[in-house]
Amino acid sequence: MLRCPSLGYTPVMRRIPRRGWVTGAISATAAMLVAAVATLAPRSVLAEDIAVPVALQVELMVKVAAYDNNLPARAGDKVRVLVVTRAGSGDSTRAAAEVTGALAAKATIAGLPHEESAVSYGDAAALARACRAGRTSIVYLTPGFSDAEVADVARALDGVDVLSVSAVPGYVPRGIVLGFDLISGKPKLLVHLTQARKQRVALSADVLKLMKVYE
Prior knowledge:
Blueprint: H1 54-65, H2 71-75, E1 79-85, H3 90-104, E2 114-120, H4 124-133, E3 138-141, H5 147-156, E4 163-166, E5 178-183, E6 186-192, H6 193-198, H7 205-208, E7 211-214
Parallel strand pairs: 1-2, 1-3, 3-4, 6-7
Antiparallel strand pairs: 5-6
Helix pairs in contact: 1-3, 4-5
């Protein structure tokens, strides 16, 4: 589970009913990743499938990105974040606004300046082309996508150097690299390790100890 032993505090948030797992232990080094959780107040959940409030997702995403050994080479002079929305989904639109708002409050990602842009999903191939053309470092999928669409995105991003992040925990088993869930009211990081390798995301061992790993 995610907690900060040095502060003796575990954030408690309302959990939308989902199936959970047994959480892993957190090492003292990895606890640095989630120290900021203690200072975050819970926010309302936007959609039934979003387990962790979006502001907290952004906080954790930024922390995890700093442990991606390939991010500096991928980003170059700037971390570019692409937020993908689903046309016609109010939950998607609201999540996108929260993501960009929360990122705007961050001075840097992995020590680098950053910029955010949003795109409405057309198809997976077009998204992969946009990631390549825009030298995207992180692509964030908002709620509203079908299982088939998520699987299409994962296939299209095979070989694309990008960290894909999911607003919805159920996207991770279908091939999105990073996601977030709650277990007993506590945040849990999820990673699809096989897809991470395909997308040249190299997370450190300390971070992987925090995560529920899918292969």
